[in-house]
Design brief:
The complex is a heterodimer of chains A (256) and B (971). Chain A is mostly beta strands and 256 residues long. Helices cover 11% and strands 33% of the residues of chain A. Chain A folds into 2 domains: 1-35, no CATH class; 38-251, Jelly Rolls (Sandwich). Chain A starts with 9 loop residues before the first helix and ends in a 5-residue tail after the last helix. In chain B, helix 4 packs across helix 5 (579-592) and helix 9 (708-723) runs antiparallel to helix 12. The chains are: A mainly beta (256), B mainly beta (971).
């Protein structure tokens, strides 16, 4: 399997020349290198090719783009390179075809650059896995934007629905914000612009969902909780990243 | 346009024709530097080989006339700095003056280069950098078009100088990050480079300087093609919601700022707050922010306070990815003070004294606590009044007390005072536990006074009006009024006088008797020959001996009926006076003499804030500096800005008086200046009135006889103010008038009601006429226009009127005011007197372009006034005693002369000379011998461009040559 994410890795870049390899070895001998965490999935949202948005990690989580009347998300300027502009009115979204390993890892980090179009009183889903239909329990999780806040919510086997939300006005409509959520089975944390804003102690397990992984919309109805705005550099990691690591990931590729 | 304005314009055009010289300066274009210069003062680096030199500096106040010693400069930039290379050519390198070595001292009195950079080109805010010839630095932030200056602003700029054989050079590096760039900085900036030369006094600049260098509207366009400055474009607001409080025994300054990203893209930033006192600083925790383009956010911060007092808050915005990369710096001078519990007595409003003419049922006060909410919770505030020095006694009982109230950050309390007897009291406010135990106590002296012993009680009421024995008093008069010339018919009610500290008490009392005989009142310095309050002591706190001497002098004079008040300081910020000393002086007088107010005069807005505690009445002197052939060096609305500053600095709790400009600064050597005309005098006056002024002491009486606008115009204004006294002393009706005009911000208007009459006062400060529509709540259907003999008729509260340049209109329902003397008639008298100054055939009259050059000037000498057609008063006075001094008249071209008339009170004999064939030779063509005034010399008509009067004999009893007027005729 080709590892496309390696093209973006500093380690891979440094291997382009023998000199660089030698330098790395020398540095590694002098200072222990801390490897950048590798995501399980990373959608840079640079383009839609044959209706597909690529996961560049090489783990095969490519996503199919959808929209009402085949109107697909628009490619616009992003925080780095391009990004995808999702229209709620056109019920646009990305459906990840291979999703089993994104179900509910015991520890994970989800992050993205988002630019919501407006302050919407409805929940707008940045990404999520599993639905919330019926009486519950509701397997899966949802990462949301709601009225200038970021919010993460998941379902447990005993029907609970723990969540954490940042305060109002932490995620302003019309502006780029970097949002990240981490969970290790004990602490659920939310970061906005790489600042830890909320940590909740939640000693629960996410109930795994067999349903699909959707970006910018709900797994069920597509006219209710669609994200209206721009998403860029959506990444999922199979571990809890530190604030420093989140900052490094958020700024990777940004203009200095 | 009224006739008087047309006459003014014509007079200006005739009197000051454009002198040929340099054309308008071109835009200055900076070049991109490949590498940063070493900033060593030498301009031999490769980067300075590129780009054009900018030169042709013109003389300050002399239009486009080129400076004798030229200056040239280049500008370059890189990603982080703006670089200047300046070369000052100097034929007298051995005479360079450099005395100042301390940063931000008066280095502009040395040979120096000045750079003014306006990074938005909006001509309101700019940065001022000076480097003297020995590399001493000065920097300041200038705002409001140069009206407000913050010298405490310190920029991390570097400069170095070097000396050559024929020139000295300066190299300057200014970091962009210090310049407060905004999105407007993407367009043209504005720039001026100036030079002060003292090897031979010559002030010159790249852009034309009309009265000073601080005229940003005249600066040239400044461009930095290819500069990538976006990352420096942030808006960081001055701190707000400030709190100084204790946190676990540590004093903490906390506040918020608001940061807006104008860079055009997202940035991760950190705000680093820092308090700096001298060379020491304390830092707060950096605050992380991610801000998208155009996004703004409040950012709270806290810093531990090392010590209370004046300090600088520095807010540094850095790149969070590389904290060494600074994106923006904002420095804010501030005063950090902490009081756990503070008392502010709001009634009585003045000096914490209840006066005999004052009826007061309750003493009202505000108690403010800096404690945190949790420290106040469940506690109470009490307020009690004790006889002075009795509170600490075990059996002391309060003579009056307030009902206790629940403690909070700010609490109002009222103490019944109707039965309080005359006496000296102590007001005690306590924060107490529920069981009565006092945790914090604040004390303040409170006095109930007997009637003034001399029958003259002066105090200020809640509306900031001065009261004389309980009746409102409107002071209007002059600085240094000649008592002998004081005519009650002129309408003046008060005066100021300098220099009484030189005279013993008895002499001053004799002089006060003369003032009293004229039925007027005077404010003068409270100092004495034993305690002059001058020199180095001004930088020190007061000592006990000074306190005793001040008390003694005030006690010896305070009973005199002519005393209006104590003139505390004249522009203390320029000395500078230690602010603590100013406050101590005030407190000594306040405690010694409760019956006369203390008056503080400031020259700057910063000075108003700094010395606001040094007086009861703040009386700034915002001179617009009127220019020959032009309007003013600073916007005429400077008057309004200073009045607003008094209100802001005191929270509206102290009266604003004003010392407007009633003189020609040109007579004090400021080139290119003139006296304000009648329209400008009235404009300054009513601008101040609209912005709340309740007293007017004009500077200065000494020039009144030489300017008809002053001599005839000021008594008119004094009488007009007397007639409008009730309206001037009344408070504004809030939001009663709306203005619609091309430049509505330049129409200063206020609605007042007094004595049952309606008043709308309106002044135009725009530099052009305006048609103005007023919409007035509750406006009567017909209004008289005061002193103009006309009426306007509002329809549904709306009417439109024409405002010519700087015009004032006063509208009222008071028919009596419609009948008063007419403005047009007053202007006609002034015009007539103006025209009469020029005698037929007088070739030496000032409009001929004749220049006056003298051998030397003594104190108060005004040589330019010897050709103004006024044969008395202002004069040339020689610097040295005895005969031998001379005065020259130099015409632009040859004139035919046969008779010279000299008005003098000190000369018996003199000779009339013209240049001989060699440079130093003078040929006597006529002689003046003792005789009746004026002295006349006639001689065979001759043609000459220069004529010299050399004094050969003084009159008996005279020791200095002096000439009041010279006239020259063809025959």
């Amino acid at each position: 399997m080709p590892n496309n994410y390696a093209r973006h890795s500093p380690r891979a870049a440094s291997s382009r020349s023998l000199f660089a390899v030698a330098l790395c070895l020398l540095m590694a001998a002098s200072f222990p290198l801390t490897a950048a965490p590798e995501p399980i999935a990373h959608w840079p949202m640079e383009k839609i090719e044959d209706g597909v948005v690529s996961d560049i990690t090489g783990h095969g989580h490519d996503a199919t783009a959808h929209g009402k009347d085949n109107e697909l998300p628009q490619i616009v300027d992003g925080i780095t390179g391009h990004a995808l502009r999702f229209s709620a009115k056109s019920q646009q979204y990305l459906q990840v075809n291979k999703f089993a390993d994104l179900a509910a890892p015991e520890a994970f980090t989800i992050m993205a650059w988002i630019q919501p179009l407006s302050r919407n009183a409805a929940y707008e889903i940045i990404c999520g896995k599993g639905d919330r239909s019926g009486k519950g329990p509701w397997p899966g999780w949802r990462f949301r934007y709601f009225w200038t806040r970021a919010l993460f919510q998941f379902g447990t086997a005993d029907g609970k629905e723990p969540s954490a939300s940042t305060a109002s006005w932490t995620v302003e409509a019309g502006f780029w914000s970097h949002v990240a959520a981490t969970y290790d089975g004990k602490n659920l944390s939310l970061y906005v612009n790489c600042d830890l804003l909320v940590t909740r102690e939640i000693d629960e397990r996410i109930m795994p969902s067999q349903r699909g992984f959707i970006i910018a919309n709900y797994i069920g109805r597509k006219d209710a909780y669609a994200f209206d705005g721009i998403i860029d550099e959506l990444k999922v990691f199979g571990k809890v990243l530190t604030e420093k690591e989140i900052f490094a990931e958020a700024t990777r590729g940004m203009v200095q | 346009m009224p006739k008087y304005l047309l006459a003014l314009v014509l007079a200006v055009v005739i009197a000051f024709p454009v002198v040929p010289g340099r054309a308008d300066p071109p835009p200055v274009i900076a070049t991109k530097a490949a590498a940063a210069p070493s900033v060593d003062g030498n301009l031999d680096e490769a980067m300075w080989r590129d780009g054009p030199w900018y030169t042709d500096f013109t003389l300050l106040g002399e239009g486009r006339k080129l400076a004798e010693a030229q200056t040239r400069f280049k500008v370059a930039f890189d990603d982080s700095h703006l670089y200047f290379a300046v070369q000052c050519f100097e034929p007298n390198m051995d005479k360079l003056v450099a005395r100042h070595t301390q940063r931000d001292s008066r280095i502009f009195l040395d040979d120096c280069v000045e750079i003014m950079v306006d990074p938005t080109g909006d001509c309101t805010e700019y940065y001022h950098f000076i480097v003297n010839v020995i590399g001493t630095l000065y920097d300041a932030q200038n705002r409001q078009g140069g009206n407000v200056r913050t010298v405490e602003w310190d920029c991390n700029f570097r400069a170095a100088t070097a000396r050559g054989e024929e020139s000295w050079t300066v190299e300057v590096a200014i970091p962009f990050v210090e310049l407060g760039l905004t999105s407007r900085s993407r367009g043209d900036w504005a720039l001026n480079v100036a030079r002060e030369r003292y090897a031979r006094k010559e002030l010159s600049s790249f852009t034309e300087g009309r009265g000073g260098f601080h005229q940003p509207t005249l600066y040239t366009a400044f461009q930095l093609p290819g500069a990538d400055l976006d990352r420096y474009m942030w808006t960081v607001r001055a701190p707000f919601e400030v709190s100084v409080h204790m946190e676990e025994d540590q004093l903490v300054y906390s506040a918020k700022t608001h940061i807006t990203n104008d860079t055009g893209r997202f940035w991760f930033v950190q705000l680093h707050p820092e308090l700096i006192v001298g060379k020491q600083s304390s830092s707060g925790k950096p605050a992380n922010q991610g801000l998208d383009s155009k996004q703004g956010r409040e950012v709270p911060f806290s810093i531990s306070v090392r010590e209370q007092g004046p300090q600088v808050l520095r807010l540094r915005l850095v790149d969070r990815r590389d904290p060494a990369r600074v994106l923006y710096v904002k420095s804010v001078p501030l005063l950090v003070t902490y009081t756990s519990l503070a008392i502010d007595i709001t009634r009585p409003c003045y000096r914490d004294c209840i006066y005999a003419t004052q009826k007061l049922d309750n003493i009202e006060l505000t108690a403010t606590s800096a404690l945190r909410e949790k420290e106040l919770s469940g506690r109470w505030l009490t307020a009690e009044v004790y006889m002075q020095n009795e509170e600490d006694e075990a059996d002391a009982r309060p003579v009056a007390q307030a009902k206790p109230v629940t403690a909070a950050k700010q609490v109002k309390l009222a103490i019944p005072a109707a039965d309080l007897k005359v006496g000296d009291y102590q007001l005690v406010v306590k924060l107490v536990e529920a069981d009565g135990e006092a945790l914090h106590t604040a004390r303040k002296r409170l006095r109930k006074l007997p009637p003034a012993p001399n029958g003259h009680e002066w105090r200020v009421n809640e509306n900031n009006v001065l009261l004389h024995n309980g009746e409102s008093f409107l002071p209007f008069g002059w600085f240094s009024q000649g008592i002998g010339e004081l005519d009650p018919a002129d309408g003046y009610t008060a005066m100021q006088s300098y220099a009484r500290e030189w005279f013993p008490t008895e002499t001053v009392r004799g002089w006060l008797d003369e003032v009293a005989a004229k039925n007027t009142y005077v404010a003068f310095p409270p100092y004495s020959p034993e305690f002059m309050n001058r020199g180095e002591v001004l930088k020190q706190p007061m000592n006990d001996e000074e306190r005793a001497l001040l008390r003694q002098r005030v006690s010896e004079l305070m009973d005199h009926p002519a005393v209006l008040g104590w003139y505390m300081f004249d522009e203390p910020e320029l000395k500078p006076v230690l602010p603590q000393r100013a406050q101590e002086l005030y407190e000594v007088i306040r405690d010694t003499d409760p019956y006369h107010p203390c008056i503080m005069l400031n020259d700057t807005i910063k000075g108003i804030y700094t010395y606001a505690r040094g007086g009861d009445i703040l009386m700034p002197d915002p001179y617009p500096l009127f220019l020959k052939g032009d309007l003013a060096a600073t916007p005429i609305e400077k008057t309004s800005k200073f009045m607003e500053a008094v209100r802001d600095a005191t929270g509206g709790r102290k009266p604003a008086w004003i010392t407007p400009q009633g003189f020609n600064y040109g007579d004090y050597g400021r080139a290119g200046n003139r006296c304000p005309n009648f329209v400008e005098l009235r404009n300054q006056l009513y601008q101040a009135v609209v912005h709340g002024a309740k007293g007017f002491l004009w500077y200065t009486y000494g020039q009144i006889h030489n300017y008809p606008d002053l001599k005839l115009g000021m008594p008119f204004l004094a009488r007009e103010v007397r007639d409008l006294k009730a309206a001037i002393l009344a408070d504004d009706e809030p939001e009663a008038v709306t203005v619609k005009a091309p430049k509505p911000g330049h129409i200063h208007a206020a609605v007042r009601r007094a004595g049952g009459e309606f008043f709308l006062l309106a002044v135009n400060t725009a530099t052009e006429p305006q048609e103005v529509t007023f919409v007035v709540k509750g406006a009567p259907k017909s209004l008289y226009v005061v002193s103009e003999g006309r009426k306007v008729s509002p329809q549904d509260g709306r009417f439109t009127d024409q405002f010519d340049l700087y015009t004032t209109h006063l509208y009222t329902t008071d028919a009596a005011l419609a009948e008063r003397e007419s403005l047009a008639a007053a202007q006609a008298k002034i015009d007539q007197a103006e025209a009469a100054r020029k005698k037929p055939g007088n070739l030496a009259f000032e409009d001929s372009g004749v220049r006056v050059v003298v051998s030397g000037n003594g104190s108060g000498s005004t040589p330019n006034r010897v050709v103004d057609g006024i044969t008395a008063h202002m004069r040339w006075t020689a610097r040295e005693p005895g005969p031998g001094d001379w005065l020259q008249l130099i015409w632009p071209e040859q004139v035919q002369l046969g008779r010279v008339v000299i008005c003098t009170t000190s000369i018996d004999e003199c000779e009339i000379q013209i240049p001989g064939e060699t440079e130093d030779e003078w040929v006597t063509v006529g002689k003046v011998t003792p005789g009746p005034q004026p002295l006349v010399a006639t001689f065979e008509p001759l043609k000459t461009q220069t004529l010299r009067i050399i004094v050969t004999k003084l009159r008996e009893g005279q020791d200095h040559s002096a000439i009041q007027e010279v006239e020259a005729y063809a025959k």
